[in-house]
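Input record, target 12 of the design panel.
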């Protein structure tokens, strides 16, 4: 008999679960994101239904995500840098600690997650499977597999929407079956989230006991060393620790300063502030791992706004940043091929250049522009940098200087950022490369606004403290040359113990010429997209690529600034 797929669409808060024909009461709570106890509807449901049975809290370590890959360009697995893996392990350890205080613990298993979950359901006689709904394509495919099996054996599945404030499906339905393509249209459709006035379950007195785990290979949360990593693999580790406890601590510290919350205004802020970042640094806890509930964050912000006379408003306020997250989640969920240029209906078709050497120099912080290189070194070391710093390096790689595909920059961020998130990472790279979403923030022609790799950083940090920290080779360079060391006389370079071209790279391109060439290419690409109404065939795309490569192409790679 052919198995019918279990179709389960999310509701704004909870789903109507498929009811098991069995009278058993064992529940399994499957943690993926949502690594927290507070405001976790899946955990709440598993507890309430396991009052007379057992509850199994499970996290599955996928070797493809966690095992070391010696061939990767930075320490880590094939899919994640070691900073994010460490952050995840810290988050799991903190979750395990929280569960143990309530009489439970986190059961860590290893293997392909779908196969492991099926075995757990079988061996532990689970009658109720609970997990947070996820819109990422990876989890959509994984969840279909698990729910299909659960449905075939009568296991109740409960998968609530709690990673976001809104249900993306609801927003898309309200918009006539299409994802809203601007922040403003999203805001009009979304309205106020259902959690605005609802009471959230923040804690428990105890949790149901864990039953017999049988022959399954259950373990404690492993250490980095147990996964095959070494503490000395990184010269400098991220200062941001993972976990629900740290997330709540950071949140409480941020909202205790009501004036700061009320006056927060993005894109203002200092991208060079690294010892005390000019933002909340809540993104890793909200976006990637769900150590902090977005709904609880929303309620905390609303309480602050009600307590002050005046505050900033979306899209620039802190609440506005939370709603940007919702916008990208909804648009990504409702757009086919959202993570690609080809076949993506919201993305401009632009014949970006392929240059592996240039990409590697940008990725490794060796462009010869200290502002750009310091940012990339911070990313390599910390797995995080200020949003304006991200803007600078993304613009430099794509439409500003190198004209390299945003997908390649996206892949580097996806690997290295501790707050990397599929929807937001892809959305931001399309936006910053002026491939999509740009029209909300930039005056036409949109692509003409370019971040200077010299003057943008100098505006915030004229002494170059940020550069000196992350590029110690330049620590003794006088401040008048710190952003353009190639302009320093050789005697100054010698005194600073940094000879450009020997101790620090020469600039890989001449910014003025490179940015002018990028603008020309963007103009040509925009013209073709407009002419073809976005429906560019393969032949037209190839013709445009040839035209950009031959028509007035300057040899930017060899046009270097004059060195003293």
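The sequence produced for target 12 reads:
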């Amino acid at each position: 008999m052919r198995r019918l797929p279990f179709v389960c669409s999310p509701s704004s808060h909870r789903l109507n679960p498929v009811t098991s024909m069995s009278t058993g009461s064992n529940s399994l709570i499957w943690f993926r994101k949502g690594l927290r106890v507070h405001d976790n509807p899946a955990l709440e449901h598993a507890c309430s239904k396991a009052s007379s049975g057992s509850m199994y809290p499970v996290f599955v370590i996928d070797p493809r995500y966690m095992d070391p890959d010696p061939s990767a360009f930075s320490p880590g697995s094939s899919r994640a840098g070691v900073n994010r893996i460490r952050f995840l392990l810290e988050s799991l350890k903190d979750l395990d600690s929280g569960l143990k205080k309530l009489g439970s613990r986190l059961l860590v298993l290893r293997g392909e997650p779908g196969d492991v979950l099926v075995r757990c359901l079988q061996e532990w006689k689970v009658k109720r499977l609970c997990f947070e709904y996820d819109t990422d394509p990876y989890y959509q495919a994984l969840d279909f597999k698990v729910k299909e099996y659960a449905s075939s054996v009568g296991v109740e599945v409960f998968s609530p929407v709690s990673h976001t404030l809104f249900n993306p499906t609801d927003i898309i339905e309200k918009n006539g079956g299409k994802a809203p393509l601007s922040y403003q249209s999203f805001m009009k459709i979304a309205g106020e989230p259902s959690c605005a006035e609802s009471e959230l379950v923040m804690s428990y007195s105890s949790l149901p006991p864990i039953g017999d785990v049988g022959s399954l290979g259950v373990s404690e949360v492993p250490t980095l060393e147990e996964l095959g990593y070494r503490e000395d693999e990184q010269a400098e580790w991220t200062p941001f620790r993972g976990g629900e406890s740290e997330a709540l601590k950071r949140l409480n510290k941020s909202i205790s300063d009501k004036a700061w919350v009320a006056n927060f205004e993005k894109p203002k802020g200092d991208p060079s502030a690294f010892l005390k970042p000019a933002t909340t640094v809540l993104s890793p806890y909200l976006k990637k791992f769900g150590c902090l509930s977005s709904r609880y964050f929303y309620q905390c912000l609303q309480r602050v706004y009600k307590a002050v006379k005046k505050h900033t408003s979306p899209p620039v306020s802190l609440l506005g940043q939370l709603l940007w997250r919702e916008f990208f989640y909804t648009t990504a969920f409702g757009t086919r091929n959202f993570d690609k240029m080809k076949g993506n209906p919201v993305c401009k078709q632009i014949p970006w250049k392929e240059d592996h050497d240039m990409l590697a120099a940008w990725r490794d912080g060796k462009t010869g522009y200290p502002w750009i290189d310091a940012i990339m070194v911070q990313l390599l070391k910390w797995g995080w940098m200020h949003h304006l710093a991200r803007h600078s390096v993304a613009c430099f790689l794509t439409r500003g200087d190198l004209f390299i595909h945003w997908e390649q920059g996206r892949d580097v961020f996806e690997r290295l950022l501790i707050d990397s998130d599929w929807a937001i990472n892809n959305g931001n790279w399309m936006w910053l490369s002026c491939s999509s979403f740009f029209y909300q923030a930039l005056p036409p022609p949109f692509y003409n606004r370019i971040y200077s790799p010299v003057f943008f950083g100098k505006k915030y940090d004229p002494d170059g403290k940020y550069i000196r920290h992350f590029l110690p080779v330049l620590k003794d360079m006088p401040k008048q040359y710190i952003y353009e060391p190639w302009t320093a006389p050789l005697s100054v370079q010698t005194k600073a113990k940094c000879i450009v071209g020997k101790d620090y790279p020469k600039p890989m391109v001449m910014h003025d010429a490179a940015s002018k060439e990028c603008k020309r290419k963007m103009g040509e690409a925009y013209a073709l997209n407009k002419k073809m109404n976005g429906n560019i065939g393969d032949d037209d795309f190839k013709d445009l690529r040839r035209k950009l490569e031959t028509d007035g192409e300057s040899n930017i790679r060899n046009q270097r600034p004059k060195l003293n």
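The chain has three domains: 1-162, 164-199+244-334, 356-558.
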